[in-house]
């Protein structure tokens, strides 16, 4: 009982934060609502990661400030996440299409 309530609260507080910074394109909200109703948590996590990367991509437009360093750290974390997804997928014997489906957007 507590775990679904906690997950529900965390999902919606995260989505509210994305909405405040203008990174919510609706996909994360839809996946969050589906995850709360028993849907795929992997799809929700992917949508959240993509929203964070979208927000971090805007940091490249700030010439001075902490945003550049944070954007760099978020990009590095995204790269390591991609490596981890590919390696875990290969070790599990997943097809290339299944692995590609799980990868997040790239920080470009």
Tell me about this structure.
With 108 residues, the chain is mainly alpha-helical. Helices cover 75% and strands 0% of the residues. It has five helices and no strands. The chain has helices at 2-21, 27-36, 41-57, 66-92, 96-102. The protein is flat and about 45 Å long. The protein starts with a helix and ends in a 6-residue tail after the last helix.
Number of DSSP-assigned strands:
0
If you average the pLDDT, what whole number results? 77
Largest sheet: none
Radius of gyration: 15 Å
In terms of quaternary structure, what is this? single chain
Low-confidence stretches: none
Summary of the model, kept short:
With 108 residues, the protein is mostly helical. It contains five helices and no strands.
Overview features:
108 residues; single chain; mainly alpha
Topology (elements, then pairings):
Elements lengths: L1 H20 L5 H10 L4 H17 L8 H27 L3 H7 L6
């Amino acid at each position: 009982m507590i775990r679904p309530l906690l997950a529900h609260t965390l999902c919606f507080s995260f989505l509210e934060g994305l909405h405040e910074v203008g990174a919510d394109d609706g996909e994360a909200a839809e996946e969050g609502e589906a995850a709360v109703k028993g849907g795929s948590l992997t799809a929700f996590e992917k949508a959240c990661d993509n929203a964070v990367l979208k927000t971090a991509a805007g940091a490249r437009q700030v010439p001075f400030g902490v945003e550049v360093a944070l954007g760099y750290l978020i990009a590095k974390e995204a790269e390591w996440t991609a490596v981890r997804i590919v390696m875990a997928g290969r070790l599990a014997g997943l097809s290339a299409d299944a692995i590609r489906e799980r990868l997040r957007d790239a920080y470009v």
